[in-house]
Design a protein that fits this description.
The chain has one domain: Rossmann fold, CATH 3.40.50. Helix content is about 25%, strand content about 20%. The chain contains seven helices and eleven strands. One of its GO terms (cellular component) is cytosol.
C-alpha cells in the first residue's frame, strides 16, 4: 500500500498545519514540495496515496510572479484526468482546481472572509463521501479576498456561504475548499491585527470567535479530512453518479 501524501506548498505563510497530525494518525507520511522555494514539482502523483494543494495569496494563473504554477496545474490535470489518486485543494488549491478545468476565479471579488465563517451544506453533500452526515450548517476558518466565480461544467457544488457562493466543489475524486480546514484556532490568534482591520474586521472579535469554536472546528474538520485520507488508503470510492465502485468509506463522526 502506498503510504505517502504529496503536499504542494505555494506560500511559506500557508503551510499544512493540522494536516500533518491527521496524516500521521492514519500511518501515512507527508511529502512536502515547497514550490514557492523553487523545489521542483513531480510530473505525476504516481507513488503517492493522495495529492493536497495548499493555499497562497496569488491567483491560480499568476504565472509571472509564481512561475511554478503551470507545472502545478499540469500535475493537477494529470492526476484528475487519469484518476490517479484523490485530490484536496485548499483555498488557492480549490481555485487551481476550478481554473484548470474551465471555471473562473476573480481577484478581490465581492467581500472578503476572514476568521470563523458559517457555511451552508448543500443537498449534493448528503451522499458525498467526505460530507455525508454533516448538519445543514458548519463553520470553518476563512482567509481570502479572491474567489471562484464560475464552476467547471462537471463540478458538483457542495457548500456555500453568505459572501462566497462556491465554498466547496467536487470533480470526480477531487475536492476543493475555499476555506482552511487545516488552520487551528490558535493560528488565528497569531494573525496581525492591522491586517484584520485593513480587511474590515475587528481583531478582538475574530480571535474570540475562533477561541469559542476551537473544539467544534477540530471535531468537524479532523473527521472530514480524515475521510479523505481514508479514501486515499482504501482506493477508489463509489462516488454518487460516477458509475465507479470501490471500497466503502470508513466511518467517521462528523461534529455539529
Amino acid at each position: 500500500m502506498t503510504t505517502t501524501v504529496l503536499i504542494i506548498e505555494n506560500d511559506p505563510g500557508s503551510g499544512p498545519g493540522r494536516l500533518l497530525d491527521w496524516i500521521a494518525q492514519r500511518d501515512l507520511a507527508p511529502v512536502i514540495v515547497r514550490a514557492h522555494a523553487g523545489e521542483p514539482l513531480p510530473a505525476t502523483s504516481d507513488g503517492h496515496a493522495a495529492l493536497i494543494l495548499l493555499g497562497g495569496g496569488m491567483l491560480p494563473d499568476a504565472d509571472a510572479a509564481s512561475p511554478w504554477l503551470p507545472a502545478e496545474r499540469e500535475l493537477l490535470r494529470t492526476t484528475v484526468e487519469r484518476d490517479q489518486v484523490p485530490v484536496l485543494g485548499i483555498c488557492l488549491g480549490a481555485q487551481l482546481l476550478a481554473h484548470t478545468f474551465g471555471g473562473e476565479v476573480r481577484g478581490q471579488y465581492g467581500l472578503p472572509e476572514k476568521g470563523v465563517t458559517e457555511l451552508n451544506v448543500l443537498p449534493a453533500a448528503q451522499d458525498d463521501p467526505l460530507l455525508a452526515g454533516l448538519p445543514s450548517t458548519v463553520r470553518a476558518v476563512e482567509s481570502h479576498q479572491d474567489q471562484i466565480t464560475r464552476l467547471p461544467a462537471d463540478a458538483v457544488l457542495l457548500m456555500s456561504s453568505q459572501r462566497c457562493a462556491h465554498q466547496m466543489l467536487r470533480i470526480g475524486r477531487s475536492w476543493g475548499v475555499q476555506f482552511h480546514p487545516e488552520v487551528s484556532a490558535a493560528r488565528v490568534t497569531a494573525w496581525k491585527p492591522e491586517s484584520l482591520r485593513a480587511w474590515g474586521f475587528d481583531p478582538a472579535a475574530v480571535v474570540a470567535e475562533a477561541d469559542r469554536r476551537a473544539a467544534e472546528l477540530e471535531q468537524t474538520w479532523s473527521a472530514v479530512v480524515g475521510r479523505f485520507l481514508d479514501l486515499a488508503r482504501s482506493g477508489t470510492p463509489d462516488l454518487p453518479g460516477s458509475g465507479r465502485t470501490g471500497r466503502t468509506v470508513s466511518g467517521a463522526t462528523v461534529g455539529p
